[in-house]
Input
Amino acid sequence: MKAIAREDRGRRVRDVQSRLVALGFHIEGAELADQAFGPSTERAVRTFQQERGLLVDGVVGDHTWQELVEAGYALGDRILYLRRPFFRGDDVRALQRRLNVLGFDPGREDGIFGEQTGQAVREFQTNVGLRADGIAGATTVDALDRVFRAPGSGPGRTAVRETEALRASGGTLRGRRIAVDPGHGPDDPGGVGPAGLTEAEAAVALSERLAEQLRALGAEPLLLREPDETPDASERADRANRGDAEVLISLHLNRHEDPSAEGSSSYYFGRLDSVSVAGQALAELVQEEVVAATGLRDGRTHPKSFPILRETRMPAVHLEPCFITNPKEEQLLTEDPFLRDAAAAICRALSRFFAGRSVGGVDGGAGATS
Output
């Protein structure tokens, strides 16, 4: 879709405004009357993006629009069942949350009605004496509401499962299937450095070093794109899922209008009140190792709902080790010693993750939400 942004007017702007107002966001009356994308509409979009774990740019692009549509569904508004493409929405997330807290494992609370969510619905239906058809219609939702009288608190079954998996995941990298995603591509080069290096080029270079070191350690890297192609995020996630990857590392570079902005940041799946326990543990390990090995400024870890994090079924990390718009960091990205050091740091983080050793020796994910 064509992005909707500041200074736009018309029916599409009015649609965005109506959805934001229905969700409780304030937009000035004059902007509503004129169907104008003004300051208050932009503030509402930015706040919405922040709450949903999206890129906060004040622009309604594909991902923000999809989230606006999904946010409009409440549990019971429609019948949910397993289909392709999968149902997506806040109603699915509410369903997953209830099942999770009640002890049925729908998988990550990502708002996507996939196979694991369908299985959890069938298990719940069997438990309460309903026909186990996997369809979350009025009868099943009413049964859920009777059992789930008030919002649950504390970790659900998914969080417990992920935490236990971390405790029991001992081993080395040998034989591990690691999805490596070089961000962007020739049709979407991403950020561009002062000397002309593109984010897509730098991501490929780092991905190749990472794949080399993983192979040397006995792992099986699965590259999610070739240098000459630009699959979208959903296709990359599907390739990782179909390839039975155990974890995913997506490599990007940060950018900023201020060329002095610097440092490394890592992102894991998280939106609203749900995070991936294993993804968070892996992101913290990757961030710790990369910063220690390279001396880069620590931009810390953050929950986000990027499609590559949300749509993958394995622990996933989106790593931005440098600002490509910083001249010094752009130069580092062209130097093989730096690329090797960064790749080695990621390998150490993965080794610690599979050995069950999290940051500071603390068991990964303890106390995290679902």
User: Anything to note?
Assistant: Strands lie at 177-182, 220-223, 247-251, 264-271, 274-275, 298-304, 316-320. The chain has 14 helices and seven strands.
